């Protein structure tokens, strides 16, 4: 471990845990980094980004007002941007990671407990210019954007309109007289709302608006709009822009609102790669390959899955290390208070979180690699598997964000009261991940998209048509008998597939019954959505289980024996855990018996005990530097109580022995003079 | 509704919902207030507490730093305390509510989005003086405390010690020479930590410490300790006191730490009702009735259950009203975008939250009334049912706080992105309720206490001994056959009891197997704790279901027909919802079939549609004034988008067109001069 050095005084309980870990921690680190070379490169990047200490605050931003937090985040964003341009860019081999590489982005977590106000500049503004501009447009905008001479964001969502993009109200009406578009916000609900950085930071913005030309609406299109003066940053005339106010998290991101009062922009500011308006106002649709749109969407979701897995890994690290240090109760009067990590209920809360962090990280990589391979093959024009990848990325995004948020809270609960403190480092993880459940596609909406794909696939299976790989198992629904239960890992995965198939079949049956009773297809679908969401969740769980297991088997093929054992234990734990969470479905859709489930429960409890001695080693293998954890409870040295007190003493409320509120309010009241 | 007035412009969708509500909203309000008179009194209290506008901030505290928030909260606490002493105290009939009445405390929610720094003064300091002081001690301390000449808190938890009170390290050693106790914090982990108000506000504190006299330890006892000078509020010598730093919520409560360096207090400052140390150092245990301790504990938990139900009701009100206003997607191209409340998935998220708020409020009242009745009867000395009430209050506290936190998040998710904004009013509800899951007894620890009682009761049932009422159903475990499924409400409640009995039986069987295999009783218990927690949860669910149903039947006996119908629908919904969440257990422990469960799912979906037209009426019946909701999404008039924008414009970040961070950081970077 990089963080071990001879001077460091480590909590003796934590040192003992590390001594008894029976596998090679570094080997596991390499597995999840994608190989030893990647680990080395990651460490090099972290050294460059973190060792200077530029990320440090003199006063922690948890003590600041939202406005102060924002200003401090701008300060650090500029430092970070400069580092990206200079020190980090000079690292050899950097290009293999790319600018948006999660590995680099992760170092930003040392600088920002929440996020940088530049997040959408690199995350959406630049990629949209790359993806939706003509080459001429790109050559105009891209160099200035990459050099941060201009800073931009992406404004699509409106105050009254989110998921349903066709419902957006902002208009861009072409005026052939002046060869300009007139941007307008006809109502309050049409104000753009939420775009990160929009409030005070950016001077440019991609705006998605309904395009009108020659009296006809052609649907939503993107436009690049200057909103603030490049010299003094004042909002331009016809533009109303500001910040939307405090949120649960993302408070350093100055999410903003934006309204237009007949604001004019040049015709060339429409992003014209996929559609154009000619000088005379003629609308021309350019043939567009669906691949591109899918590509960006799948990529954004892959990054999100990766990011929530990373944040879940942080929560695990904090909660497991602290649980090895915290001692509580004395079930045996003649023994010391046990480490809380020794309690089965604690292991039950924490080990599934470790396994899930592994599972989601591997699924994210697997999805991206499979998708890239398919894209490469697809040059011939075969786009058959695109809907499958869209459906997969939808449900993976929904389930990974939801599972991670839930498990981060579970890690916090496992830390007792201290988990509630900001200095534990967990609350801001929850606030961040909890938001990812909603943005870039709401949980329920995404699962219903996957469900639509599953129902189509089911109908194909029914018609004996071939199925794409991840839904091939839907054939189980037509086997005529319940799938045979078998508690081996492969047996459990098969059962998860069987119950997903059973749930899809049940949804289809219900919808057909409702349609026979006279309901329209739309209404029958709507009335079945609760079950359709559950079916999509079951499908996703089956895919995650299968992928996690297969990837671990593949990636540990050459591992040392003990690494193989502990990785096998965790995949098995994931399967047992979810089987025990889905006993009703298993009883309905497989041959499992009450006795089988009772045995599985006992086997699950035994597995927890087996994983227990390696628990600290497992979270050490995430190799998360203290700078990224921001946690008094989770730091590598385990000086938990010392750090909690050190953090408390930093509070401005402890700078004076008596707060001003005493003489102003308390004293008059206590002396009866109020 | 009080909030309707002719000048108020109400969102037309919300007005339409109110017009179509088919039951008498006020009748339902009366049911949950406990009768019409209580409603009238509540409204009178709210008028007095809220109409003056004293609760208003010129700048919302979400825009402040934690220190500013605290100072503002002290200001308002003093205003509120003065109002309690004057205007509110003068209200006739007030005494029937009592000082700690939830009805009065709720009005404080208009003043504090989080809590008052005086919370533990009235909530713990005063009650401890009342409960644990001798009459002489009371006459010394109580008048000054009630008049707020001194302000106190209650410090038990230490940095390294929470639930396990015997593990506390702070010592109080009696010195007969000077007739004083010497308070000392021997280690960092022995520092008191968490007490609300301790950081900067209070000048007195109840301290729980290990009592040593004549060289012997007599366990933990409470002492009253002055910690700050009464004239200048400076910490006294030998006292180290401060604030513990920012938390997820409760940031206005200045939770504090406290350490002693051989700090001396007079012998009389030990609270001597239950035990005394005589002048010569002799320790005398005063005979103590268990009733008292149980009484306080049950009371605190009853108040907590009531409080989380109240906060859940707020979240429901916000999410249901907003869902009636928000429109999204267009499943039928020729129709307008539907209200999101029309979607089954949305109803699935929200209606269970309404039913749960009802269930928990009724359970809290029922528990308190039954317990009070038992206490009154108990003067003869019969304390048989005390363990039952302790077990009940433990699991009810655990399940109500956990369910409420989960459902508040579900309400937030139902509000999409806007639920993430502080101005939605939901995030601070979650932060508050989420803490209640841990304090006053952690979720897992409390459920294991209930489980211990259940296992004992099971063994009594096995030995054919009589059982107390709430566990009488454990006899099912010995019936020899599965309980017959029946989808009537009573049938489902019976099934919930059967599955709880089945789970307890299974735990006992596993523990016995483990003990036969050579494990000690302690180890066999520990290895079964995951299942024991699940059994206690099942027991609690059965009790809540049974109580909710019976109380509604009783309380609506004289209601108008439509009120009866809608209340019956909600209790039924609660039962269907939880049956569908526990299909595995039902299949194992009752005769339910796969077909029965499929039918139940369809019946559940139909029930959602039946409740839908009355949804806004149901949340209106909570009768929560806008001042208590603090929500742009949930206000009575439904001016959602106008209010979101109004709140945004209040942000200090919108006060200047260009933030200072531009000239300081952004401009130099963008102009390449960084």
Structural class of chain A: alpha+beta
User: In oligomeric terms, what are we looking at?
Assistant: homodimer
- The helix content of chain A, as a percent range, equals 40-55%
Class of the largest domain in chain A, according to the CATH hierarchy?
Answer: Mainly Alpha
Low-confidence stretches of chain A: 95-100
Please report the two chains with the greatest interface, counting residues with C-beta closer than 8 angstroms to the partner's C-beta.
A-B, 135 and 136 residues
Quantity of strands of chain A, as a count? 11
Estimated radius of gyration of chain A: 27 Å
3D shape of chain A: globular
- On the 0 to 100 scale, the average pLDDT of chain A is 93
Main pleated-sheet profile of chain A: 6 strands, mixed
The N- and C-terminal alpha carbons of chain A lie at a distance of 60 Å
Could you tell me the strand content of chain A as a percent range?
5-15%
**What number of domains of chain A?**
4
Question: DSSP helix count of chain A?
Answer: 22
CATH superfamily name of the largest domain in chain A? Butyryl-CoA Dehydrogenase, subunit A, domain 3
Could you explain the architecture of this structure?
Chains A, B: Its cofactor is FAD. Chains A, B: One of its GO terms (cellular component) is peroxisome. The structure is a homodimer of 674-residue chains. Chain A has 674 residues and is α+β, with helices and mostly antiparallel strands. Chain A folds into 4 domains: 248 residues, Butyryl-CoA Dehydrogenase, subunit A, domain 3, CATH 1.20.140; 166 residues, Butyryl-CoA Dehydrogenase, subunit A, domain 2, CATH 2.40.110.10; 136 residues, Butyryl-CoA Dehydrogenase, subunit A, domain 3, CATH 1.20.140; 26 residues, no CATH class. Helix content of chain A is 54%, strand content 9%. Chain A contains 22 helices and 11 strands. In chain A, the strands form 3 sheets. In chain A, strands 1, 2, 3, 5, 6 and 9 form a 6-stranded mixed sheet that branches. A 3-stranded antiparallel sheet of chain A has the order 4-8-7, with no helix packed on it. In chain A, strands 10-11 form a two-stranded antiparallel sheet. In chain A, a hairpin with a 5-residue loop joins strand 10 and strand 11. About 1% of the residues of chain A have low confidence. At the A-B interface, helix 4, helix 9, helix 11, helix 12 and helix 14 of A face helix 4, helix 9, helix 11, helix 12 and helix 14 of B.
